[in-house]
């Protein structure tokens, strides 16, 4: 329905919800990615083809995590940006590099797994670390080209000082919606379909062939589960709700009110919090793909258990003495 004025949207929700999420992601993501990258670099001579993609996945996460303290300050100050227009655009650009770089490298990992399991003979000796490095460079270039137009949209506005839009101002929201839809198609939908196709075929092969090692089957299924969690929790809700929220803003701009506008905005802010969780969840790929890191984690858990057990023994002895 058309109204002369539309109900107020709860813009303050993001200032309450996003900072705690950013703090959690920053701490967990920095520790997990730092540990994973350190382990990969420590065993550089034993670097495998798939680990090149995992390494780039970690670099994309670190790039975004370093911008989170500035966003924390922004939302703690009530959505007031004090770092300037240029740095606002750089911060949003790093988020997009992380998001679509993560999707790109997860897709590369899926394709590599597919080729290694479905076409092992053809793959033998034909795919080298040099190839994986070249593909990684291509992914970075493609993601940068896709994300670059976003920097030309207004992120701050004179009439609303202190704002740092994750999309753009209402004045340009119609054009941004068109750009966002195309971006969603090329940056998310196509990689998602490729990943689904690869693992769908892999599952069929794993079910049909009894010659494939059981350990390899379990690893493949675990990686598939990790990817399902990442896409279901982080990527799908964000892309659906980002475009729906942009459409809602276009309608509001033309004074076309919808009862669901406020709910869509809140859901979109929640999806923004969920999508940044990918920087904390991506290290699960390290644990799956790198046996050395898994062994280190087991040793760490074993030492922790031993420390807890040894500290509980004196306490028990003291109690008995009393």
Fold and architecture overview:
By secondary structure, the chain is an all-alpha fold. The chain has a single domain, classed as Rhopdopsin 7-helix transmembrane proteins (Up-down Bundle). Helix content is 77%, strand content 0%. The protein contains twelve helices and no strands. The protein has helices spanning 13-42, 49-65, 68-76, 85-118, 120-123, 129-147, 173-208, 214-253, 261-276, 278-281, 283-289, 291-321. The longest helix is centred in the last third of the chain and has 40 residues, at 214-253. It is globular and about 65 Å long. The model has no long low-confidence stretch (mean pLDDT 84).
With helices defined by DSSP (H or I, 4 residues minimum), what is the helix count? Answer: 12
The portion of residues forming beta strands comes to under 5%
CATH top level is: Mainly Alpha
Low-confidence stretches: none
For the biggest sheet, the summary is:
none
Could you give the topology of this structure?
Blueprint: H1 13-42, H2 49-65, H3 68-76, H4 85-118, H5 120-123, H6 129-147, H7 173-208, H8 214-253, H9 261-276, H10 278-281, H11 283-289, H12 291-321
Name the descriptors:
single chain; mainly alpha; 322 residues; Rhopdopsin 7-helix transmembrane proteins; globular
């Amino acid at each position: 329905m058309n109204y002369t004025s539309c109900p107020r949207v709860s813009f303050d929700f993001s200032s309450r919800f996003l900072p705690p999420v950013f703090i959690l992601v920053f701490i967990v993501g920095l520790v997990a990615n730092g540990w994973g990258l350190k382990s990969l670099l420590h065993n550089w001579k034993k670097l495998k083809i798939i680990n090149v993609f995992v390494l780039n996945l970690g670099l994309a996460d670190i790039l975004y995590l370093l911008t989170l303290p500035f966003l924390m300050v922004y939302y703690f100050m009530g959505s007031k940006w004090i770092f300037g227009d240029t740095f606002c655009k750089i911060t949003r650009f790093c988020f997009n590099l992380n998001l679509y770089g993560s999707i790109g490298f997860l897709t590369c990992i899926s394709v590599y797994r597919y080729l290694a399991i479905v076409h092992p003979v053809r793959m033998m000796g034909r795919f080298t670390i040099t190839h994986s490095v070249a593909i990684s460079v291509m992914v970075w270039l493609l993601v940068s080209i896709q994300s670059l137009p976003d920097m030309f949209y207004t992120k701050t506005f004179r009439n609303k000082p202190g704002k740092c839009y994750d999309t753009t101002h209402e004045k340009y929201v119609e054009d941004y919606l068109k750009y966002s839809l195309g971006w969603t198609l090329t940056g998310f939908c196509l990689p998602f379909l490729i990943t689904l196709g690869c693992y769908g075929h892999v599952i069929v092969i794993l079910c049909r062939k009894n010659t494939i090692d059981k350990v390899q089957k379990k690893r493949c299924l675990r990686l598939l589960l990790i990817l399902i969690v990442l896409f279901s929790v982080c990527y799908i809700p964000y892309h659906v709700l980002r475009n729906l929220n942009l459409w809602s803003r276009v309608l509001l701009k033309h004074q076309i009110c919808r009862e669901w506008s406020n709910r869509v905005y809140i859901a979109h802010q929640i999806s923004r919090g969920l999508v940044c969780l990918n920087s904390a969840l991506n290290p699960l790929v390290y644990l799956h793909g790198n046996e050395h890191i898994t062994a280190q984690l087991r040793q760490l858990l074993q030492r922790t258990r031993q420390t807890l057990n040894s500290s509980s023994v004196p306490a028990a002895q003291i109690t008995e003495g009393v």
